[in-house]
Write a structure and sequence with these properties.
The complex is a heterodimer of chains A (89) and B (366). Chain A is an alpha+beta fold. In chain A, 19% of the residues lie in helices and 24% in strands. Chain A has a 5-stranded mixed beta sheet with strand order 2-1-5-3-4, with helices on one face. The relative contact order of chain A is 0.26. In chain B, the strands form 7 sheets. In chain B, strands 3-2-1-28 form a 4-stranded antiparallel beta sheet, with no helix packed on it. Chain B has a 4-stranded antiparallel beta sheet with strand order 4-5-6-7, with no helix packed on it. Chain B is globular, with a radius of gyration of 19 Å. At the A-B interface, helix 2 of A face loops of B.
């Protein structure tokens, strides 16, 4: 299963330990993780379930392309990093 | 009188208490976080704080006996697939809470009801003390809502919510920009109000269109709710018929421009404003921080400056940063440069409580 790591700065607001979940896309994996940590979901995704404007996600070292539906593919061995984008200042 | 003040700032929520020696900071919550607004519910004492975590979005916290707890935040409904709706810049309008810009308690007869105004223009209502929120779809789906535009922010937003103390189903809201809207059935239906206001920043054919008005702040007198005061982008307006019609007041020195207005809770003719140079500069006139007050419904104004800095003051007082307590004797305001002043004599004199706060967004008496 893909592993998900969250930025340290989110931990002050809501605990987001390293987690893993099955799935073939970023969406599937993240929703799996958020199913066990529902409070964290709104810290990462906006009301339309798109990635928040000043957040970014890396999959195996590459930023995702699809910020709206999170359809970027992941593998069983993928490492997903949910980070802040510096654009947020 | 209220002895508690909640001061929302860019870097935390400061609660001030009036003690024997005077006002002092009693506690600081959410230090380092952007607290944009608070509500102290007069019906049950519960406090609500709106936070904007930037990267992580807007959140709402509620006070409990054990401290603050994060509660639900108003969430926009799914945007229908294929719906194209752009903001005034031509960019797709994201149906997502971008800021909480108004929090108001419902009427005495409806405990637990909280109203919440947001950017980009959604109005929400909770019936369970903020545990859950329902968008007021009748307003969001109103065809004229799409004519709202950004004013104080890039996106349109609801910044003022006035619940009529005589009838909790009568609610007036104000939008920057989108004018004043009124419901007489707790949000089932809405009508535009605000005839008589005037917008200089639009073409002549729209100048008097109620939806084109950039209301900065709307205040309703609790004892005489037919009286409403507006601090508008263009100046000061007053209504004596619950916001249906307004009269412009032009002779106000040093300026009719500003963001905030409060009205005396029992005397509808008495209201306070914090003037600034209009509007490209937005700083106090001649570097003098003053408050203006009318006691005769706008026929005349006094300039109140005792205790306020009169040289090189560049304090801007935002629309939620001027407050009055339930007696009408105590007022307080905070500024963008971190100053906080309190008056105990209806503004005749002011005392600077502190001048090193983070930028102040909102001031509310508990």
């Amino acid at each position: 299963m893909a592993k998900v790591f969250f930025t340290p700065s989110i931990q002050r607001h809501v605990a987001c330990p390293e987690a893993e979940a099955p799935g073939r896309t970023v969406r599937e994996v993240l929703e799996g993780v958020f199913a066990g940590n529902p409070q964290a979901r709104a810290y990462v995704l906006d009301d339309q379930a798109a990635l928040r404007r000043h957040m970014t996600i890396f999959v195996d070292g590459h930023t995702i392309r699809d910020r709206a539906t999170l359809s970027d593919a992941v593998s069983e061995a993928s490492r997903i990093y949910v980070f802040q984008a510096l654009s947020g200042g | 009188m209220s002895d508690i003040l909640h001061v929302s700032t860019r870097k935390g929520l400061f609660t001030l208490a009036r003690k024997r020696a005077g006002w002092e900071i009693d506690r600081a919550d959410f230090l380092g976080d952007n607290v944009t607004l608070t509500l102290a519910d007069p019906r049950d004492g519960q406090r609500y704080a709106a936070l904007d975590h930037g990267h992580f979005g807007v959140k709402v916290h509620r006070s409990t006996a054990k401290g603050w707890e994060e509660i639900a935040v108003p969430v926009y409904p799914p945007k229908p697939e294929g719906l194209e709706e752009n903001d005034m810049w031509g960019r797709p309008l994201n149906w997502s809470t971008a800021r909480i810009w108004a929090l108001a308690a419902g009427g005495r007869d409806e405990p637990g009801v909280i109203w919440c105004g947001t950017l980009p223009g959604g109005l929400f209502r909770s019936t369970d003390h903020g545990v859950s929120w329902q968008m007021v779809r009748s307003l969001w789906d109103h065809p004229k809502r799409k004519q709202w535009m950004g004013g104080g922010a890039d996106l349109p937003g609801i910044h003022s919510i006035c619940v009529d103390p005589r009838n909790s189903h009568h609610v007036s809201i104000a939008v920057s920009t989108g004018g004043i809207w009124f419901t007489e059935d707790a949000g089932e239906t809405w009508s535009q109000r605000g005839e008589g206001m005037r917008a200089e920043h639009v073409p002549p054919e729209l100048t008097h269109d109620p939806i084109a008005q950039d209301v900065h702040c709307l205040a309703q007198c609790p004892a005489a709710p037919e009286r409403m005061w507006v601090q508008h982008h263009n100046g000061i307006f007053v209504s004596s018929d619950e916001g249906r019609n307004f009269t412009e007041i032009t002779e106000v020195k040093p300026s009719v421009f500003g963001f905030a207005v409060v009205v005396h809770p029992r005397d509808p003719d008495t209201a306070w404003f914090v003037p600034e140079i209009k509007d490209e500069k937005r700083i106090p006139c001649e570097g003098k921080l003053v408050v203006t007050r009318t006691r005769d419904g706008g026929k005349s104004f006094e300039v109140l400056s005792k205790g306020l800095p009169q040289t090189h003051a560049y304090d801007v007082v935002y629309r939620h940063a001027l407050a009055i307590d339930m007696t009408g004797d105590r007022l307080a305001f905070g500024s963008t440069t971190g100053g906080l002043w309190v008056s105990e004599d209806q503004g005749d004199s002011w005392a600077c409580i502190i001048h090193t706060l983070p930028p102040v967004y909102a001031v509310r008496f508990a």
